[in-house]
Records
---
Amino acid sequence: MSFKFFASVCAPAALLALSACAQDETAPVDNDVAPGTVQQDTSLADETEEGPTRARDLSEIPERFRGIWDRPEGSCEPYSNFRVEIGAQKVAFYESTGEVRALRMETDDALVVTLAMSGEGQSWEQTTRLTLSSDAELLSIEDSQVSGEDATDARRRCDA
């Protein structure tokens, strides 16, 4: 095999293979969210007084998810074991509290929240899916760290 044949056939193929490995500097890159920051996404739905819209970013839990929630048979009182209070940057359970670290809308009614949790002398990170019913009166809370039937827990909105 001659050098000319090699140079005309193999060299362009090698250059093509190498260029496929090079990373495009403008291509999006998945980044880990640094502790203490809220992930922002320009394509996420957010809440306004007129209803859901396309927002420039999602820096806090949308208003329609916020409030006090309890099991259907719960009292909504602070001593209720299944009471959850959702704020803009915090989710407070009965014996633990989570500070928002990342937010991602899956649909207009489903939000995935990564929380830096603390309670009963322990700290951990937890990813939780919050899904609203169509009338926004029921909230399904799905904890990624729990499996089986106990993974999803339905709550009703408590009166203010």
Note: The chain has one domain: 45-157.
---
Amino acid sequence: MKEKIKLDETDFKILYELLEDSSQSLTELSKKLNIAKSTIHSRIKKLERTEVIEKYSIKMNMELLNYPLIAYVMLNYDQHKTDYDQEEVAQKIAKMAMVEEVHLIAGEWDILIKVRAKGVEALGEFSIKKLKKVEGIGKSLTYVVLRKIKGENSKPYVIDAKR
């Protein structure tokens, strides 16, 4: 486990702004936050070095790309159906197209995956022709998202907690 880093109000202001728009220049951030560009630059470098900022990315509109359907699939790992361990099975699933997230979980189910599909038919085909053929998968339960209320790229609660 990585060592926790102490962040101050300035760090959180910078993180908030970068979450809103990571393409902002140092000049724009400096004007918006009323903080010297050199300070912002050094703070961002510290946040990157300490891996508070892991990477910069874009958020695509998956509906416009014709992948509007989100589903969560709960899977049971069945050790009698494979020589692979649970994590190896999850790694195989993670490499599949349409799979956005894979988590090993505790409880009644062993693996949770988030899937993106063009529609219910494509989701069914993925489940039947690809997912169920993975060695080590037992039962599955699929939940189709009707409407997303809050999702990835949402401002993390730690930003508000510090304000």
Note: The domain at 69-144 is CATH 3.30.70.920 (Alpha-Beta Plaits).
---
Amino acid sequence: MDRQTTADLLEKTPAILRGLMAEVPEKLLKEHRIPGKWSAHEHACHISRVQMIQIGRLKRFLTEERPVFAPYVPGTTSPADELIKMDLRVALDDFEASRAEFVAGMRGAKDWEKTGEHPEYTRFSLAFMARHVLFHDYVHMYRIEELGFTRILPHK
């Protein structure tokens, strides 16, 4: 996927997420409909939280020769109850602002194929990270839709 397409899609995600969250019934926002799995609220807050991490990674790509990144594992490298305690409106506002910063940085990056190291991936470039962020957003938005609108949930 080229830089322009990736940036355009990433730029639209905050509005899509905000609209999706506005449709989820209030009583289901924080409900753990699948035991041991996140609520719709937690998925949305996770997207916001991860975007802040990605801005840090982008800045390192822009300033370091070959950055080495550490994994982010919710509940392991952060408090287990961090997401459920977040204010959803603040998280969505933060996501919109931080995504705009991320996209602007991406668009302005000189080397779209610049690589770094990440222990979870066989290759990790700025282009890969941007595409990965996009796919990550949509996986979690799918889960939000499932939790908010599915009559019978699969046991996952």
Note: Residues 40-63 form the longest helix (24 residues).
